[in-house]
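User: Please run a holo structure prediction.
Assistant: Happy to. Please share the sequence and the ligand.
User: Here you go; the ligand is WTA.
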Amino acid sequence: MSDEIFPVPDKWAETAKINEAEYHERYARSLTDPDGFWNAESQRIDWIHPYETLKDVSYDEADFRIGWFLGGKLNICANALDRHLEERGDTPAIIWEPDDPETQARTLTYRDLHARVCKFANVLTVNGVGKGDRVTIYLPMIPEAAIAMLACARIGAVHSVVFAGFSPDALAGRIEDCQSNIVITADEGLRGGKPVPLKANVDAALEKVEVGRVIVYRHTGADVDFNPVRDVWWDDAIEVAAPLCEPETMDAEDPLFILYTSGSTGKPKGVLHTTGGYAVWASMTHEYVFDYRPGQIYWCAADVGWVTGHSYVVYGPLINGATQVMFEGVPNYPDHSRFWQVVDKHKVEIFYAAPTALRALMREGDEWVTKTDRSSLRLLGSVGEPINPEAWDWYHRVVGERRCPIVDTWWQTETGAAMITPLPGATALKPGSASKPMFGVQPALVDPEKGTLLDGATAGALVITDSWPGQMRTVYGDHDRFFQTYFSQYPGYYFTGDGARRDEDGYYWITGRIDDVINVSGHRMGTAEVESALVEHPLVSEAAVVGMPHEVKGQGIYAYVTTNAGTDDNDELRKELVQWVRKEIGPIATPDVLQFAPGLPKTRSGKIMRRILRKIAENDMSNLGDTSTLADPSVVDDLVANRPQ
Ligand code: WTA
């Protein structure tokens, strides 16, 4: 099955914006004539002042810099809203579908959205936010999340959205790192019928770090603590806000947002994106990957707390004048048909989600899907993690009734938008392969040890050999870390952290992270982050965390924990430690398995042999390799003997 190739359906080849011949022609031009190619693509944005230099990039340590569309001036919020008012002011921009299907959906036209964003931008200004200031947004999937982000962009403030599933501690760390003086939140979120105590989480975070202002949107109406000196109700502030707000003139390279993401070491990094290149990149990829034309109903099921929500819920679709569904809930509430009921209710044509949700639904049986209509669907997308051929087949055959191409888009927080992806009218599909590079993207494989470029059908570490407009520009506050993390392993290239295979047709197959990052349900998690949360517990002396295969989540979290001498390693403590990690980071970091380890396998120089820990986590004991170089080989026998089943 996985060898099967699905040719481009005739109808798509005839009608899509990009067919196969056009893909090859444009891809070639994007490399041979970047000035001509990007000059044409940049026209999709309304510039206040045209750019003067397309690109100024060096990956050399000595004069390391990345810049695009230099000298260009624009406002990305005006591109997402104001310029649509004349032609489609009364067209729905966001159709909000609540967690509970009994609650009324809300539709905001481009005119509504514009009016709300202008007012909220004035609220920010009145509360002391100016150009360049950082604004922390901790909101659920409600239109106000997009409104808050766009309002920041309108006045040139830099938003830092923190996923509303993160703990108070994680939130505090992110507020502190970017030194924001304001948090925008809601009383509560709602997911699968369960309230999420957002305001209470903010209050807890603000015991560790101070801000001057908290703006609270009343969403569920729950009773929450309110500090009259520091807190402001969103609605009260809007009521007295002035309706007009001129968009600020921003330089192409002015910061647009910071989004924290996990890396192999240390604390999460503040990935910084700038304005001009990101605007062109998010808009262009959204148009071509989804073959998007205004009027079509588009739904990206990602949360705004992740990069997919930034590029494919907020900026890409709105710049392109899209009509989209924004969904507050979860795929299995009230039942496993929910996604497809929402598709039917709003006549969704283009649907974009993560494989983990599909795998979870696939397990529940086909009937939840087949009892819905889904005849509006034309195109399906996948993002965030490798999609296994079995889930791909189910998505294609059961959800899409073999009628809808699947765009399996590979990209990262760092890359801003889709980098390796099929185009529905151009690319024959191979289940499990992200396939071919987007225009302007030059992927390559290198030998992981030697760093030499590899040719032909082969496997290696995935690098990108030159810059693209939506590339991140720095790690906020730590430019050296930016260089060290991405450009030092393989000099001259951007290193993705992923491994990949390239087949004889030049298709890329992403095999997953080759650094110490794991991908749990499409969410990135640094093993180091989970380890440091564990060792903060007073009874833990050491911890090592690795990924393990997980049927639904893709990868699960396997934690080895060494407790202080004399501690009773019982089940109660195991549960307490699992809860501890949930509290320190958030539910997405919950360890799936926690094994007490009297000792960890270390080399004589003290380095933990993670390779062995991964094998034990995978339950692959036949393949532990050479353990004779360990300081104490017997610890491995102990771990194997005591592996929880
Ligand atoms: C993984 C999400 C295989 C990959 C947009 C990458 C994928 C990490 C795919 C980035 C895909 C994302 N196939 N793997 N289609 N898309 N990944 O920053 O390991 O949350 O490095 O961005 O997800 O995760 P991030």
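Residues 110-126 form the longest helix (17 residues).
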